[in-house]
Write a structure and sequence with these properties.
Helix 7 packs parallel to helix 9. With about 375 residues, the chain is mainly α. The protein is built from 25 helices and no strands.
């Protein structure tokens, strides 16, 4: 029977020198692991080497064997009860190392030995995230089947699905989606990177094409979402919220109604976006009620200057108690009667008094609490 030189040396030392120190045995074990000498590993362990021995940098023998891809040595160490979740200085475990390296054989061995599949390193990254980062689909499959948290995120809020999208790892993405990852949240990320194949996978998994269309600033992705039934007018409304100006122009070119977006821009006081939409054909009167209801006086002034009918905003301003906006609308010619009922219903005393003083018909008794 053949025995390796290292194996023979350990046997000789233990027979002729009963005082071989534990440190020397541990060094022999680590050396055997380095050289993928499973027989020498077995001999060192039999002679008393610690299965949890660490090298000069604090790396456990099991992690060293895993890093090297020496699966036979991993088997020997696990059989000797090496701590499967032992960490190095960066809180990496052997499972993380195997997943990072795409070593499916070692991943299987470590999982079978009870490795914590959701353990994280000092940056909050799990074994699953490591496998996804480098596109190791076989390891991703094993980890997910073992119960890896598909939605776990690192310290920066990045999860495995985001990594798969950013890196363009389609096989990993499919696996994550199969195990319940939400396609909706990462659609903007896929749009940002312009990954059409990834976008198609997300849409097939149920992602909202309107949400993606609202984030698109490339003609190619806009066309893709339109092909999947996205309504450009609904997307325009969201696009205004996200302030994607190039996207707005693309959506308008695709037939979006600029008035849909103007109402949202007006309500949020987005003057620059409103100006863009007005320039592209939006009716200023369409956004006046939204601006007046929100008390956005500067927006109301802009829309009035662009020709909005002041009567279109009076009821909204009076209903919400925005006295400065009511003054502005009256100054621009709004009829006092347009806001009196809304002011009464909202119990806004000063606005009621103002409108009555400007000639509004008195409200019926019992409709206003003084």
């Amino acid at each position: 029977m053949y025995f390796s030189p290292t194996f023979s040396m350990i046997i000789a030392d233990t027979h002729h020198n009963s005082e071989v120190s534990h440190n020397e045995l541990n060094e022999s074990l680590l050396n055997a692991v380095q050289h993928n000498d499973a027989q020498a590993v077995m001999a060192a362990l039999a002679a008393g080497a610690a299965a949890n021995a660490v090298d000069g940098e604090g790396v456990p023998a099991l992690m060293l064997a895993t890093f090297k891809g020496h699966s036979d040595c991993v088997k020997q160490l696990l059989a000797a009860k090496a701590e499967v979740d032992a960490e190095d200085a960066d809180k990496w475990s052997s499972l993380m190392v195997a997943a990072n390296n795409g070593d499916a054989t070692c991943v299987k061995l470590l999982l079978a030995a009870g490795a914590n599949v959701n353990k994280v390193d000092f940056e909050g990254e799990s074994s699953l995230m490591r496998a996804v980062r480098y596109g190791h689909a076989s390891c991703v499959s094993l980890l997910l089947a073992a119960g890896a948290d598909v939605n776990a995120a690192d310290q920066n809020g990045v999860n495995s699905l985001m990594m798969a999208v950013a890196k363009g790892h389609a096989k990993c993405l499919k696996l994550l989606l199969q195990y319940g990852a939400s396609p909706h949240s990462v659609l903007p990320c896929a749009v940002e990177y312009g990954r059409k194949s990834i976008i198609k996978l997300l849409l097939a998994a149920g992602a909202d094409p309107i949400f993606g269309l609202a984030h698109s600033s490339r003609k190619a992705t806009v066309e893709l979402f339109l092909q999947h039934g996205a309504d450009p007018s609904k997307a325009l409304s969201r696009s205004v919220t996200f302030a994607h100006k190039r996207n707005m122009r693309l959506l308008l070119a695709a037939g979006a109604d600029p008035n849909v977006g103007l109402a949202e821009a007006a309500a949020e006081g987005r003057l620059t976006d409103a100006k863009t939409l007005l320039k592209l054909g939006a009716d200023p009167s369409e956004g006046l009620a939204a601006a007046a209801a929100a008390g956005e006086k500067r927006m109301v002034s802009l829309l009035l200057a662009r020709g909005a009918d002041p009567n279109r905003g009076m009821a909204a301003a009076a209903s919400h108690g925005h006295l400065p906006v009511v003054y502005l609308l009256l100054w621009k010619g709004a009829a006092p009667d347009q806001g009196i009922s809304a002011a009464v219903a909202g119990n806004h005393t000063r606005i009621v008094e103002l409108l009555l003083s400007r000639g509004a018909a008195a409200p019926r008794l019992g409709h206003f609490a003084a």
